[in-house]
Design brief:
heterodimer; A: alpha/beta; Beta Polymerase, domain 2; five-stranded mixed sheet; 3 helices; 28% strand; B: 416 residues; mainly alpha; Cytochrome-c3 Hydrogenase, chain B; three-stranded antiparallel sheet; globular
C-alpha cells in the first residue's frame, strides 16, 4: 500500500513540522523517527485521526546502540486494524537524559511494555502509572539488556546464600 | 551486593524491627484480605503469581507478578548466530514449538531477503497449524480441569499425543522440534508423515466433538464460564490484545487473513468471531479454530507441490551435512555459516505470525554481523496477561482460575 505510506508520512510531517525527524522504508516496513518530546502527541494523533486509526499498539521496546550520542532508541510498533497497516515510530534517547513521556494514557498496553523497557534499559517513562521492574527483582541495580552489561551477569548483583 | 542495595535492605530490616508488626482486627469481615496465588499453583499454568485483594469473596483488585521464568532470551540472542537461536525459540511457547520456529525463521528470512521454495512454505503452514492444534488441545484440557471437568484433560492429551507422534515422524523430535532453518527446513516431509497426518485428521473432528459435547452440555461448565471475565471490544483493542481473546470480543482480526504470510492467501478458511467477550466466547472461538485448522491442513496436504525445501542461497542457507563431507564448496559455506553466521544487511525488520495465542512477532535489528544486534520477542502471552486485572475486577475468587484458563498464558513466552 504505497499511498497509505505516503499519507502517514505526509500527515505526520504537516502536523508535527518541528518534531518530525526522518522516515525510511526497509523491506516494505515504514519507520518514522520523531523527537522524543512529541511521542505522546504523535501517538494520540495517529490513534484519533479518522483516516489512519492506528488503534492498537503492538509493542514497545528499547534498543541500545552503544554510541556516543543518542545511545538508546525506544521503538513503538503500531497497528491499524481498520487499515491493516503497520507503522514503526522511533524516538532517540541520549544517555544524559533518559526521560521519555509515557504513552500509557493513550494506549493501555504500553503499561507493561514500558515497565519492561525500564527494567531492561533504565529508560524512565514520565507519567507512567506504576513504573517498576517487571522481570528482575525490585532491588536489582543494573539494566541487563544494555550492551555494557556482561552476558554472564555481574557477580554479586543478585544476593546468593553466604558461605 | 553493592553498598546501596545493602543499605536499603538494612533499612527495611530496621523498619521491621522498630515498628510493631502485630496486626489485629476487631472484625475480620470488615477488612479486605490480600491473597497470594502462585507462583507454584496448579491453576496458574506455570509460574504466574497473582496477588488479589478480596472483599469477602469479591475481587477488589489483582496484580499479576511476572519474571519467575525469565531466562534472558533477548540477551542470549544478541550473543548467538541466527542459526544458534532456533533451539531457544522452542522454549518460548513450549506448547507450540513448531509455530515459534516458523515465526523466527520468517523474521530472519525477511531480514536477509531470502525467498523460500513453495514446498517449504506449505510444510511450514502444516507445522504451524499442527502446533495450533497441539496448543489448543492443552488449553481445552487445562481450562476444563480448572473448572472441574477432568475427563477432557485426559482426552485432550490423548489427541495431543498423536500430534507429537506426527512431530516425531516429521521433525525427528517429539517436543522441542527446532525444525526450521534459515531459508528452509531441517528435512523434507516424507510420505509416512503425510499418511500419519491424514490418519489423524480423519479421526480428529470426532474426538473434538466428543470433548466439546462433554463441556457444552455440562451445566456447571457453562455456568462457570458464561459472563465471566468480560472484556469489551474497545478495551481489547486498546490493550493490544491479539488472537482468540480479541476475536471473542468481536474483532475479526487474524494475521493469516489480514496480512497473509506463507501460503495462507491460497487457502480457504474462516475466522471464527464471537461478540460476547467472556470466557465462554473464548472457548467457542478456540474450538472453532481447531476445526478451521483441520480444514487448512487438508487443503495444504492437497495442494503441496513437489520440489526442494531449502532456498538456493549457499551463502545464507546451511548445506546438507552429508554434502559437506565430499564437496569443497559446501564445506567452505558450512564453515563460514557456522563460525561467522549469515551476516544480513544493516537494517531492522518486524515480522509476525498468528500464533495459537495471538500475534507472535520478532523485531530484529541487524548491524551486518553474524548475530543480531537486538532481537525483541513480541510474545502474545505477555501482552494478553496484562488484561487479567481488568477481567478479574469485581468478579468472584472462584472465577480466577476460569479466567486464567481462558487467557491461555504460557509463562515461557510471557517471561522470555
Amino acid at each position: 500500500m504505497p499511498d497509505l505510506k505516503e499519507l502517514v508520512v505526509g500527515k505526520l510531517r504537516d502536523r508535527f513540522a518541528d518534531e518530525f525527524e526522518s522516515s525510511n522504508e526497509y523491506r516494505g516496513e515504514l519507520t518514522v523517527i520523531v523527537k522524543k518530546s512529541a511521542i505522546r502527541s504523535v501517538c494520540q494523533f495517529l490513534r484519533d485521526d479518522a483516516e489512519l486509526r492506528f488503534d492498537s499498539l503492538r509493542d514497545v521496546c528499547g534498543v541500545d546502540y552503544y554510541r556516543p550520542e543518542d545511545r538508546f532508541e525506544v521503538v513503538y510498533n503500531l497497528y491499524s486494524i481498520p487499515q491493516n497497516f503497520r507503522l514503526r515510530i522511533k524516538v532517540r534517547v541520549d544517555e544524559s537524559d533518559l526521560h521519555v513521556d509515557s504513552v500509557t494514557p493513550v494506549f493501555s498496553t504500553a503499561d507493561w511494555e514500558e515497565r519492561e523497557t525500564y527494567d531492561m534499559y533504565g529508560i524512565i517513562f514520565d507519567g507512567h502509572p506504576d513504573l517498576r521492574r517487571i522481570y528482575m527483582p525490585e532491588d536489582f541495580e543494573h539494566f541487563p539488556l544494555r550492551k555494557d552489561f556482561p552476558l554472564m551477569g555481574i557477580p554479586g548483583s543478585l544476593a546468593l546464600p553466604r558461605k | 551486593m553493592t553498598v546501596s542495595a545493602r543499605d536499603s535492605k538494612t533499612k527495611i530490616l530496621h523498619a521491621l524491627e522498630d515498628q510493631d508488626t502485630n496486626v489485629t482486627f476487631d472484625d475480620p469481615l470488615e477488612h479486605d484480605m490480600v491473597l497470594n496465588m502462585g507462583p507454584q499453583h496448579p491453576a496458574t499454568h506455570g509460574v504466574l503469581r497473582l496477588l488479589v485483594r478480596l472483599d469477602g469473596e469479591t475481587i477488589v483488585s489483582a496484580i499479576p507478578d511476572l519474571g519467575y521464568l525469565h531466562r534472558g532470551y533477548e540477551k542470549i540472542a544478541e550473543n548467538c548466530t541466527y542459526h544458534e537461536f532456533i533451539p531457544h525459540t522452542d522454549r518460548l511457547d513450549y506448547l507450540s514449538p513448531l509455530a515459534n520456529n516458523v515465526a523466527y525463521a520468517l523474521a530472519v528470512e525477511k531480514l536477509a531477503g531470502i525467498e523460500i521454495p513453495e514446498r517449504a512454505k506449505y510444510i511450514r503452514v502444516i507445522c504451524a497449524e499442527l502446533a495450533r492444534l497441539a496448543s489448543h488441545l492443552v488449553w481445552v484440557g487445562t481450562m476444563a480441569m480448572d473448572v472441574g471437568a477432568v475427563t477432557v484433560l485426559l482426552w485432550g492429551f490423548r489427541e495431543r499425543e498423536k500430534i507429537q507422534d506426527i512431530w516425531d515422524l516429521l521433525t525427528g523430535v517429539r517436543f522441542t522440534t527446532s525444525f526450521t532453518r534459515v531459508g528452509g527446513l531441517a528435512q523434507d516431509m516424507k510420505e509416512d508423515s503425510v499418511a500419519a497426518i491424514r490418519n489423524f485428521l480423519d479421526a480428529f473432528p470426532q474426538s473434538l466433538e466428543e470433548c466439546e459435547k462433554l463441556l457444552i452440555k455440562n451445566r456447571i461448565f457453562i455456568d462457570r464460564c458464561e459472563g465471566v471475565g468480560y472484556i469489551s471490544r474497545e478495551q481489547a483493542i486498546n490493550m493490544g490484545i491479539t488472537g482468540p481473546i480479541l476475536r471473542a470480543s468481536g474483532v475479526e482480526h487474524d494475521l493469516r487473513k489480514d496480512q497473509p504470510y506463507l501460503v495462507y492467501g491460497n487457502l480457504d478458511f474462516d475466522i471464527p468471531t464471537y461478540t460476547d467477550g467472556d470466557t465462554l466466547a473464548r472457548f467457542y472461538v478456540r474450538m472453532e479454530e481447531m476445526r478451521q485448522s483441520v480444514k487448512i491442513l487438508y487443503q495444504a496436504l492437497e495442494k503441496i507441490p513437489q520440489g526442494p525445501v531449502n532456498a538456493n542461497e549457499p551463502k545464507k542457507v546451511l548445506p546438507k551435512k552429508e554434502r559437506t563431507y565430499g564437496n569443497m564448496e559446501e564445506l567452505i559455506h558450512d564453515f563460514m555459516l557456522v563460525n561467522f553466521g549469515i551476516n544480513p544487511p544493516i537494517g531492522e525488520v518486524y515480522s509476525a505470525i498468528e500464533g495459537s495465542k495471538g500475534e507472535l512477532g520478532f523485531y530484529i535489528v541487524s548491524h551486518g554481523e553474524g548475530n543480531p544486534w537486538r532481537l525483541k520477542i513480541r510474545s502474545p502471552s505477555f501482552v494478553n496477561l496484562q488484561v487479567l486485572p481488568l477481567m478479574l475486577k469485581g468478579g468472584m475468587i472462584s472465577d480466577v482460575v476460569a479466567v486464567i484458563g481462558s487467557l491461555d498464558p504460557v509463562m515461557g513466552e510471557a517471561d522470555k
